[in-house]
Design goal:
This protein is α+β, with helices and mostly antiparallel strands. Helices cover about 40% and strands about 20% of the residues. It binds one RNA strand of 78 nucleotides through α6, β10, α8, α14 and α16.
RNA sequence: AACGGGUUGGAGUAGUCAGGUUAUCUCGUCGGGCUCAUAACCCGGAGAUCGGUGGUUCAAAUCCACCACCCGUUACCA
């Protein structure tokens, strides 16, 4: 079978009721973009599809709380998501490939798109017509307050467990004893949304997708994919298939969502269930891309252009579909979505359900690449506990490429990994800047010290054949990186590529061109400078190879190399070619990255560190798990002091610089994260308690000699601890 | 609780499905070199009884059983 040149990259649709956080980035946003850019760099025709998933129940709750419509909520977060993805260097805003529309492009769409809704209704009707949807009656809680009747999802109902009598059992299952039961069995049901409302159980009809019809085909399909799936995908899928598939509801009682293509009052209050609809976005997005961009940009197939990326061609070539998502989404992509695709194929062709798409059928996935979770300082990202690093605010302060590097090299490919600020700083400073950025910078500055007259001074010394060993070694690395990328092994690939910078550093070390910059012509000088020329070529290689991972610096380097061609048209396979001329940019070279300062970052992220580590109720002592020794307690010296001056920290948003009289005639300076909580006038003259023997630390440039004690309830209320009356500054607290 | 995943030198990791020479790579650390470069670069060393116990095998990080700890999921949650 010929190698498919059509590749489609699918990123799981972010659920937009909050900004994106770094967990989303590491889990699917970044891998999808890296793979997309990689596939382009291999010369393939790539379409990338995703968008905002906008029809979940929590969005309606957010809207109610804010007093706005759900549409307003998703409008805001959709724009925010698209902007932060663009700021991160993801390719979503480039709808048409720079090589030409026949090479594809990208579309970050949204499920409230009218065309998405139309296409979903079309699929819905087709599946209904071929008896793949079946009507079942189910019992469902609803809350009644006044005239309004509202169906409630089980998770929004709680009551007394009919089995063990525990309170706060959920609508369908008791967390205490683990029993599951039918909706009507729960005792004293109460709505969590509106505790005063009367609750009763009513019958309601819904349509169900006959997943059971696909059991066998899905098992066959899984068997063919087991060789490419990672172990977590294999086992999660097997688990689902082994449990046996049952029909699954595709409609629900709610008014936020896609209306059903059905007549009759019975259906008018129901909507397409979001799992069934959002996942179809992969398909609708490709079609919508064609309609909006392919035709108008002259794609020969016009509105049907999407078929190149979705349908099995007449010669049996299957477009390669790669999906990226977090581990929570695996069964949706290995079981449910393939079942829907098989259903659509069978419906369209009239053929029986099959795991092997025929020419003209929609393709099933090639690989489902699922990452585990990125944890934050050891804990899970959590919206409700505000334990998260939000992408928009991160990108306001830090370089997108640095983040992309750290998350790529630390990607949770096979198990959970941690985002830690100190590790972020270490890896960026030592690996990214020390090895790679520094290599590029030394090549650039060395070359710029040579006498030049408008062209690259290394041209006279350029002799790549003399460095065949370097090229060989680099070629091996390139091949290994390609092999890694073909299997979605990003860490491995990036580490390989960084190896080329290391080769370059060794090359320079051995050639020592700095000795010959200003010396007279000699055999040694010519040899040394030919190594520098080779190093220059390696910089060009690196600019191409690092591009999928760190696009912004790649552009900057490309510019410093004096290259004015479109870097996206340079293939990885040609990145080590030596037949191109050395170009030149006369501007003096700038470092690719700036070093990070951990102290500054900690000062900036202070609230976050506190939320995560100190005030986390799940980790506070008191449950007996985390006792400290009395001797340890004695190590902490706490004293009283009187605040004598308060100034805004010149270089921090949350810090105040506070001077404390800490003894007779002596003062010390302490930085405290109290800005916005206390005013200067509140604090002056106040007696406070502080930790006196904390190691002094610079916070954003100001030395802080201690820490003022304050109570924080985690909900934004912060109160300083003060002695109950006047007392001499410097008094011991114990 | 059930189910799924994890536990590898100081930290982070690869290898585990298809058992087999001195267990991978990055960081850190120690010693040396270089001094062009963003205190960066290069070379070398030390450091792991692969969570525990038992089993299968000529051979186990890898397969099996049990135990401990960590994480996640349990489907109207996206």
């Amino acid at each position: 079978m010929p190698e498919p040149s059509y590749v489609t990259i699918f990123m799981a649709w972010p659920y937009v009721n909050a900004p994106l956080h770094l967990g989303h980035v590491a889990g699917n946003c970044l891998p999808a973009d890296i793979q997309y850019r990689y596939e382009r760099a291999r010369g393939r025709k790539v379409l990338m599809c995703s968008g905002s998933d906008e029809h979940g129940t929590p969005i309606t709750l957010t809207a109610e709380q804010l007093g706005v419509t759900p549409q307003e909520v998703v409008d805001e977060y959709h724009e925010m998501a698209l902007k932060s993805l663009t700021d991160l260097g993801c390719s979503w805003h480039i709808n048409v490939d720079s090589r030409g529309v026949e090479y594809g492009g990208a579309l970050y769409n949204r499920t409230s798109d009218h065309r998405h809704k139309e296409l979903v209704r079309e699929v819905f009707s087709n599946l209904l017509a071929s008896n793949m949807l079946t009507k079942q009656t189910m019992e469902q809680y609803c809350s009644i307050s006044g005239d309004s009747v509202r169906f409630l999802p089980d998770r929004y109902v709680e009551g007394t467990c009919p089995v063990c009598g525990a309170a706060e059992a959920r609508g369908d299952q008791c967390d205490e004893c683990g029993s599951t039961y039918e909706a009507h069995e729960l005792l004293n049901p109460v709505s969590k949304l509106n505790p005063d409302a009367e609750i009763e159980v009513r019958e309601t009809d819904h349509l169900f997708y006959r997943l059971d019809l696909f059991q066998e085909s899905l098992e066959e399909h899984a068997a063919t994919r087991n060789v490419v799936w990672k172990p977590n995908v294999r086992s999660m899928t097997k688990n689902w298939l082994d449990m046996g598939l049952r029909p699954r509801a595709v409609t629900r009682d709610i008014d936020w969502g896609i209306e059903l293509p059905l007549d009759g009052d019975e259906w008018s209050s129901k909507r397409v269930y979001v799992w069934f609809e959002a996942v179809q976005g992969y398909y609708t997005c490709a079609r919508i891309w064609s309609e909006r961009f392919a035709n108008s940009n002259g794609h020969p197939d016009g509105d049907s252009a999407w078929e190149n990326w979705w349908k099995v061609s007449d010669d049996g070539t299957i477009p390669k579909h790669i999906y990226f998502m977090g581990k929570d989404n695996i069964p949706f992509h290995t079981v449910i979505w393939p079942a829907i695709i098989m259903g659509m194929n069978s419906t369209a062709s009239g053929n029986p359900v099959s795991s092997i798409p025929a020419p003209g059928d929609l393709a099933l996935e090639y690989n489902v690449s699922s990452n585990e979770y990125l944890m934050l300082q050891g804990g899970q990202f959590s919206k409700s506990r505000k334990h998260a690093v939000w992408l928009p605010s991160f990108l306001e302060k830090y370089d997108a490429d640095s983040l992309r590097y750290y998350l790529s090299i630390n990607m949770p490919e096979t198990h959970d990994t941690d985002f830690r600020w100190n590790e972020f700083v270490d890896r960026v400073n030592n690996e990214l800047i020390g090895t790679y950025g520094n290599f590029v910078h030394r090549v650039m500055t060395l070359t710029h010290r040579l006498p030049e007259s408008g062209s690259n001074p290394l041209v006279d010394y350029d002799d790549p054949e003399f460095h065949a060993d370097i090229i060989d070694e680099s070629m091996k690395i390139l091949e290994s990186a390609i092999s890694s990328m073909e299997r979605q092994r990003f860490k491995e690939a990036l580490r390989s590529i960084m190896g080329i910078a290391q080769i370059g550093n060794v090359l320079l070390q051995n050639a020592a061109p700095w000795k010959y910059i200003n010396s007279d012509d000699s055999e040694e000088r010519r040899e040394s400078l030919s190594s520098l020329a080779m190093a220059w070529r390696l910089c060009r290689t690196l600019s191409v190879l690092t591009r999928p991972f760190m696009p912004f610096q790649s552009d900057r380097l490309w510019g410093m190399l004096g290259e004015d061609s479109d870097i996206d048209s340079v293939l990885w396979d040609e990145s080590l070619a030596t037949d191109n001329a050395l170009n030149w940019c006369p501007d003096s070279p700038q470092p690719l990255f700036s070093r990070l300062d951990l102290d500054e970052i900690i000062a900036d992220e202070m609230s976050l560190v506190e939320d995560g580590n100190i005030n986390d109720p799940d980790h506070s002592p008191g449950d007996g798990a985390d006792y400290i020794e009395f001797e340890d307690f004695l190590k902490v010296q706490m004293k009283t002091g009187k605040i004598t001056s308060v100034d805004d920290h010149p270089n921090a948003d949350k810090l105040l610089v506070i001077k404390i009289e800490d003894g007779p005639g002596t003062t010390r300076t302490v930085c405290a994260g109290l800005k916005g909580i206390y005013d200067e006038s509140d604090l002056l003259g106040l007696n406070v308690v502080y930790v006196a023997n904390l190691e002094p630390r610079k916070l954003r440039g100001v030395l802080s000699e201690g820490m003022i004690l304050a109570a924080d309830d985690g909900d934004g209320i912060v109160r300083l601890l003060t002695p109950d009356g006047e007392i001499t500054p410097g008094s011991t607290v114990r």
